[in-house]
Amino acid sequence: MALAGRGVVVTGAARGIGAAYARAFTAAGADVVVNDLDAGALETTAAELGAHAVPGDASSEEGVEALVAAARDRLGEVDVFCANAGVARGGTEAVDERAWDVSWNVNVMAHVRAARLLVPGWVERGSGTFVATVSAAGLLSIPGAAPYAVTKHAALAFAEWLSMTYGDKGIRVHAVCPQGVKTDMLWNSGAAGRALMEPSAVTPEQVAEDLLVAMEQERFLVLPHPEVAQMYAGRAADPDRWLAGMRRMAAGLPAVTMGTD
């Protein structure tokens, strides 16, 4: 799709993948609203790009409503919404309820709440694009981080559901599923996370570039690490073999130390 003059919203845009998305959309001529909880860092990024900063919580119902209202006020139309904000919480099934609640609200319900506000208008006019930053963990999994793995699977499922429900009504959906990306989330993932992802980690700019190519080609899955497609196919073809391999891999790793609060 031609991006010049389009209204784009990117959450989690103060740094990392979100900032790279905003930079790429701005360079393509889009009018961009950026959002993040870190208001100070967000203002810096917005000033650098000439984007509109709307700080706040893009996961709560009230926060999403405020963001979409502010974006419509500044852009007129929201043509592309990038649900990029995410949290990485580690631990097993025994991790405390807060880790599950935060993960569910940020990684899944933020997407649902944004779609709830945007999709009716997009269907009425016959166009709109929803971008979900998921993770290869949503296609595969990750040892030692149950809240992250489970909610990223749910984020992928919701993106698939949006596409199958509204794809013939002019709405395009893209699920971005990288493995390691050189961001704070990777550096803070502990020894196990870095051992799994750092060797093949790509830059946020590469993820943004791959997204724009996928948008041009109208592809649902965005895979900055193409090998993930083969892993995903292997998982589907022989789940028992795949699970056995995951157990072997997990046994050789130190504990994942993603945030657990």
TrEMBL record:
<dbReference type="InterPro" id="IPR020904">
    <property type="entry name" value="Sc_DH/Rdtase_CS"/>
</dbReference>
<dbReference type="Pfam" id="PF00106">
    <property type="entry name" value="adh_short"/>
</dbReference>
<protein>
    <submittedName>
        <fullName>SDR family oxidoreductase</fullName>
    </submittedName>
</protein>
<dbReference type="GO" id="GO:0016020">
    <property type="term" value="C:membrane"/>
</dbReference>
<dbReference type="GO" id="GO:0016491">
    <property type="term" value="F:oxidoreductase activity"/>
</dbReference>
<dbReference type="InterPro" id="IPR036291">
    <property type="entry name" value="NAD(P)-bd_dom_sf"/>
</dbReference>
<dbReference type="InterPro" id="IPR002347">
    <property type="entry name" value="SDR_fam"/>
</dbReference>
<keyword id="KW-0560">Oxidoreductase</keyword>
<comment type="similarity">
    <text>Belongs to the short-chain dehydrogenases/reductases (SDR) family.</text>
</comment>
